[in-house]
């Protein structure tokens, strides 16, 4: 189990090394965050025909809803959680990463690994958000 945690931390640190400064600046600019979310949604739309990738992108949809709720003021996130979510979304959207996206499914493997690592790291906050979301009907 410790080995999995080490790999998760390593993936997140690699993503931070690539995009940490960009994410720090982004978190303070709601308009830029909205642009990011729009870009992520467009990329997801382009992937909708690939069933292997579509199944693994559910955490991205949760992240999008969490960020929207945060910026609307209905469900605030901690600064560290918001930063990690934005890091995952920036990494997913960026064509510059560890494995280039043009390599098809394999190109998305590192994107999804980072997303799933962050999803695992903030699983308690995700669970709180999903519970809160269920009460908002």
Fold and architecture overview:
This protein is an all-alpha fold and 137 residues long. Helices cover 79% and strands 0% of the residues. It is built from seven helices and no strands. The radius of gyration is 14 Å and the shape is globular. It starts with a helix and ends with a helix. The model has no long low-confidence stretch (mean pLDDT 83).
Quickly count the helices.
7
Mean pLDDT across all amino acids: 83
Q: What is the count of β-strands?
A: 0
Portion of residues in beta strands equals under 5%
Which blocks of ≥5 consecutive residues have pLDDT under 50? none
Helix/strand-derived class?
Answer: mainly alpha
Q: Topology of this structure?
A:
Elements (H helix, E strand, L loop, with lengths): L1 H25 L3 H18 L3 H6 L1 H15 L6 H15 L11 H17 L1 H12 L3
Helix pairs in contact: 1-5, 1-6, 2-4, 2-5, 4-5, 5-6
Q: What descriptive keywords fit this protein?
A:
single chain, 137 residues, mainly alpha
Provide a quick synopsis of the model.
The protein is mainly α and 137 residues long.
């Amino acid at each position: 189990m410790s080995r999995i945690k080490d790999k998760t931390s390593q993936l997140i640190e690699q993503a931070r090394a690539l995009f940490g400064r960009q994410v720090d600046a982004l978190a303070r600019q709601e308009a830029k965050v909205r642009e990011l979310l729009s870009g992520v949604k467009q990329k997801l739309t382009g992937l909708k025909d690939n069933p292997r990738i579509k199944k693994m992108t559910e955490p991205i949809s949760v992240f999008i809803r969490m960020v929207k709720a945060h910026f609307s003021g209905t469900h605030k996130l901690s600064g560290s959680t918001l930063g990690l979510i934005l890091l995952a979304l920036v990494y997913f959207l960026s064509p510059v990463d560890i494995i280039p996206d043009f390599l098809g499914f394999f190109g998305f493997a590192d994107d999804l690994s980072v997303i799933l690592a962050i999803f695992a790291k903030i699983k308690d906050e995700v669970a709180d958000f999903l519970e809160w979301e269920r009460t908002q009907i």
